[in-house]
Amino acid sequence: MSEEKVLVEVSARHIHLSDADVEALFGPGYKLTVKKELSQPGQFASNEKVTIKGERGEMKLSVLGPTRPETQVELSLTDARTVGVKAMIRESGDIEGTQGVTIIGPAGSIEITKGVIAAKRHVHMTPADAEKFGVTNGQIVSVKIDTEGRSLTFGDTVVRVSEKYALAMHIDTDEANAAAISGSAMGEIIK
């Protein structure tokens, strides 16, 4: 068991858009604008927001950039139930066979036929971090988090290794609430 700690960040509901969908929702030639840089290099929260519409209701989402090849909606399971859409637990980018949703922007709306997920909890690492922790890309680990009155160990956490990453674990708001985390915490990887 490693004594090294990893930053645990809460990833609230958001959407990643393709270039074509940015233009459909915000207008021809539109480009996302940076509101704030995120912990993962090159990733940012944009100033732009969209609304998704499910069978039971609507919800406003922040748009994260940069754009991606395919549009992906990331919700907690509670968010998904609230708007009336099924969110399968998947790794980011694994959207085949998932449900779609209506997305409404200031310049138009679109229907996506797939792309709604509840992101599988994961730890981003560089190859050097993976070596230090003794783990490999795709390995499933547990992460123990000690909080006041709600300490717990998250199992089924996938390790994602890339030179493009910065060391951080990402969990959604349901998971954060279960551990009484607001903002961020520190966790210990257990293999």
UniProtKB/TrEMBL annotation:
UniProt pathway: Polyol metabolism; 1,2-propanediol degradation
Cross-referenced Pfam families: PTAC (PF06130)
GO molecular function terms noted in the UniProt entry: acyltransferase activity, transferring groups other than amino-acyl groups; metal ion binding
Cofactor dependence: Zn(2+)
Keywords: Acyltransferase, Metal-binding, Transferase, Zinc
Chain segments annotated as coiled-coil in the UniProt record: none
Reactions catalysed: propanoyl-CoA + phosphate = propanoyl phosphate + CoA
EC identifiers of the protein: 2.3.1.222
Major enzyme class: transferase
GO biological process: 1,2-propanediol catabolic process
Keyword Zinc: yes
Database matches in PANTHER family: PHOSPHATE PROPANOYLTRANSFERASE (PTHR39453)
Stated role: Involved in 1,2-propanediol (1,2-PD) degradation by catalyzing the conversion of propanoyl-CoA to propanoyl-phosphate.
Protein's name in the database: Phosphate propanoyltransferase
